């Protein structure tokens, strides 16, 4: 990124994590030292809510900033056959990665994608400069 006055932004989404599953929220049974250090040096949002109770639609809502049922992504993707480019978050939806790129940010997605298993819907087609992870 050319402008060093802009803050670095890291969004961490974890599946099936409870509020008390990290040390910075008081967990003593699950060690999370790296997340605790990030929290200590960054910003902790104390009241966060997801727009869906399970992974794929929740990710789609977070990445687009929209209620995912408005663009047909209100269920996990089916795994009973080959998914095509119509199964997942449509390219017509603007993702946070695309909005950040418009502001001069470099973008990266790391880990589980799960908002489109077809190559046409993978992170490089959704505004991410770099992707290391798996689709589903």
Relevant terms:
136 residues; alpha+beta; 2 domains; 3 helices; 19% helix; globular
Strand/helix succession: HHHEE
Q: Could you give the order of strands across the largest sheet?
A: 1-2
User: Low-confidence parts, pLDDT < 50 over ≥5 residues?
Assistant: none
* Overall pLDDT: 89
Strand fraction:
5-15%
Taking the alpha carbons of the first and last residues, their distance comes to 29 Å
- Number of DSSP strands? 2
What does this 3D model show about the protein?
With 136 residues, the protein is of the alpha+beta class. Helix content is 19%, strand content 7%. The protein is globular. The protein has two domains: 1-48, no CATH class; 52-134, no CATH class. The relative contact order is 0.14. A two-stranded parallel sheet has the order 1-2.
What's the arrangement of secondary structure elements?
Blueprint lengths: L32 H9 L13 H10 L31 H7 L5 E5 L17 E5 L2
Concise synopsis of the structure shown:
With 136 residues, the chain is α+β, with helices and mostly antiparallel strands.
């Amino acid at each position: 990124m050319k402008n060093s006055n802009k803050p670095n932004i890291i969004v961490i989404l974890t599946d099936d994590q409870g509020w008390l599953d990290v040390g910075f929220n008081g967990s003593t049974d699950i060690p999370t030292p790296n997340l605790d250090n990030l929290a200590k040096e960054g910003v902790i949002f104390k009241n966060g809510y997801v727009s869906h109770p399970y992974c794929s639609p929740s990710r789609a809502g977070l990445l687009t900033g929209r209620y995912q049922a408005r663009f047909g992504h209100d269920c996990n993707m089916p795994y009973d056959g080959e998914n095509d480019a119509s199964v997942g978050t449509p390219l017509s939806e603007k993702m946070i990665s695309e909005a950040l790129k418009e502001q001069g940010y470099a973008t990266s997605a790391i880990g589980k994608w799960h908002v489109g298993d077809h190559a046409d819907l993978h992170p490089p087609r959704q505004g991410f400069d770099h992707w290391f992870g798996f689709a589903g």
